[in-house]
Amino acid sequence: MNDRSKKTNQTVTLTDNASGKTYDFPVMSGSVGPDVIDIRTLYADTGYFTYDPGFTSTASCESTITYIDGDEGILLYRGYAIEDLAMHSDYMDVCYLLLFGELPNKEQKAKFEHDVTYHTMLHEQVNQFYRGFRRDSHPMAVMCGVVGALSAFYHDSLDINDPWHRTVASYRMIAKIPTIAAQAYKYALGQPFIYPRNELGYSENFLHMLFATPAEEYKISPTLAKAMDRILILHADHEQNASTSTVRLSGSSGANPFACIAAGIASLWGPAHGGANEAVLNMLDQIGDKKNIPEFVKKAKDKDDPFRLMGFGHRVYKNFDPRARVMQQTCHEVLDELGMTDDPLLELAMELEKIALEDEYFVERKLYPNVDFYSGIIFKAMGIPTSMFTVLFAVARTVGWIAQWNEMVEDPSQKIGRPRQLFTGATRRDYVALGKRK
Ligand code: SDX
Q: Is the CB of residue 332 below 6 angstroms from any atom belonging to ligand 1?
């Protein structure tokens, strides 16, 4: 427990009506947000497990990194509002903030950017690794494979108990993830890899590696670079979401950081999570025209229909996802810059949002647009193919995963994550030899 969390003198009493016994459990308070009931001794004291599939009411850890107030639609990175960071900071600023807890001063920022920049190249053998994939592999499959393989190349940053190893692995991961992502894209296109350029900023470098070719100079649009940087900021971290929890759980066994990030990428790929941005574009393509919106909204409300409104709803936000508001504004800026103000996709998305927000089903369930609803429209306008959308999410979220992984490793109360279960399967029964089976 760090100095921010404190045991209150408050307890919660559990009364077991079966035995008539009562048990007191201490309540802990954080700096903001709901108090927690410390149930670490529950099973030993009472013989009961808690049951919380999906962890809707479970705090899995103590953290100082990101705070979300889902009812108010608030998102803070180390106490700073996401709106302020998105509008006034850049992604390197935010990476430093998430990793070290404070915004960097000029000297700290310059050194951080230099150190990240000089880790952007990949071991040349890693570049050969792509050759094993089909050209039409989903780039998220490539990302899982290549990132997981990094522990086969960088043996000098695998000891998670060595703070210096953790620092080097953190810088390597943040620096190399755009290079790996851009190479996955180039490999799919059959184009040569474009090496990082040390004179470029993080987001400019990423755009350059994605879109430059050896055949001519690639001119980086400052607006697109700024939009990319802002999108990376918006996706950088988000408390204990599915992929971050995956990274923490993997790391709790002592697995190396590259393997943990690969696990996070795998979890993010799901359409209920980071894969939603790709799913939103596929959904808008499926809807096709505004006149079809009512039919699809009806499908989304039909319990017998697996169709859901992708980019809508959130486990925590029961209000507008603050990132979605910034993303919508960025969408207009990028489309204006590209002279695509009448982009039919944006028009369709805005009409769908309007209709859904006025529909009782969505209002009653507090389903609002989330971060994925508009991001795909921006990416498509920037010339990024749908299959790369979740890859960009993974690029942005790597710093959040790394920050949370470091916090987990350094947490003195950390133990290997090992949940229990409510077993409803067959109880013990006698073995039946093959000849006697019916
Ligand atoms: C991300 O956790 C994070 O922080 C994730 C993330 C991050 O930055 O890491 O924010 C990124 O993953 C954003 C979410 C992207 N996913 C989508 O846009 C996919 C569509 N959304 C849904 O699949 C859903 O809203 C979830 C998965 C996001 C949240 O699901 P929950 O919390 O388990 O909510 P639920 O399924 O219990 O839904 C509550 C009700 C249900 O109806 P009832 O059973 O009460 O009648 O709302 C309905 C659901 O059927 N519902 C939807 C819906 N989302 C929820 N109905 C139609 N369309 C939807 N999108």
A: no
